[in-house]
Amino acid sequence: MSDTMAASDTQKTPSRESPNVFLVVVDNSPEMKVALRWACLRARRTGGRVGLLRVVGKADFQHWAAVGNLMREEARQEAERLLMEYAGLVMQIHGGMPVLYIREGDIKNSVVDLIDDEPQIRTLVLAASASNKGPGPIVSHLMKRLIGGLRIPVTVVPGSLSDAQIDALT
Q1: 16 CB contacts (<8 Å, ≥6 apart)?
Q2: Greater confidence, 17 or 71?
Q3: Among the listed residues 65, 56, 50, 66, the one whose alpha carbon sits nearest the alpha carbon of residue 1
């Protein structure tokens, strides 16, 4: 089974016809919906598409392979359910079907690997945590270690923005 749920180009350099994909990492953070709305509105305004990535952890049950396989399948089914839920929201805001991705492994490495693998992804959209504990694990990781090495820009949206504020900015 492929890690990419929707069809994508196999070429490594984007063509002029392929729309820009604004990638959003679907996690359980409250600010993820802020990043999603921003990406939808920017994609709609620029003629682009939205990409949704859900990363599931690896099932580490080496003693009982059947249990590990069951856990992996359940995690994948939950990821598919969640992506379809957010795909409906993307359809409402953007008007088009998003590109859906599921990866297995560490979320930080999976984001970078997907960006490297998919040339149509042209912007990573993240929302910074609104809490006083810092911007969030993905934003912190990218800013500290990887931002200079990515081939695409990263848009970090304040996680505290309201829908009306996002609408006014895009």
Answers
A1: none
A2: 71
A3: 56
Q: For residue 49, which of 15, 10, 7, 98 has the smallest C-alpha distance?
A: 98
β-bridge mates for residue 98, sequence order: none
Go through the domains of the chain in sequence order and give each one's CATH number: 21-169 (3.40.50.620)
> 161, 79, 150, 71: which is closest to 109 by C-alpha?
150
Do the beta carbons of residue 124 and residue 23 sit within 8 Å? yes
Instruction: Provide, for the chain, the percentages of residues in helix, strand and coil under a 3-state DSSP scheme, each rounded to the nearest 5.
Output: 45, 20, 35
Spatial contact of 102 and 80, defined as CB atoms under 8 Å apart: yes
Instruction: Please tell me whether residue 78 adopts helix, strand or coil conformation.
Output: helix
- Does this model's pTM top 0.85? no
Place of tokens 């953070």: 29
User: Please, is 79 exposed, middle or buried when counting C-beta atoms within 10 Å of its C-beta (0-12, 13-18, 19+)?
Assistant: buried
- The torsion angles phi and psi of 59, rounded to 5 degrees, stand at -80, 120
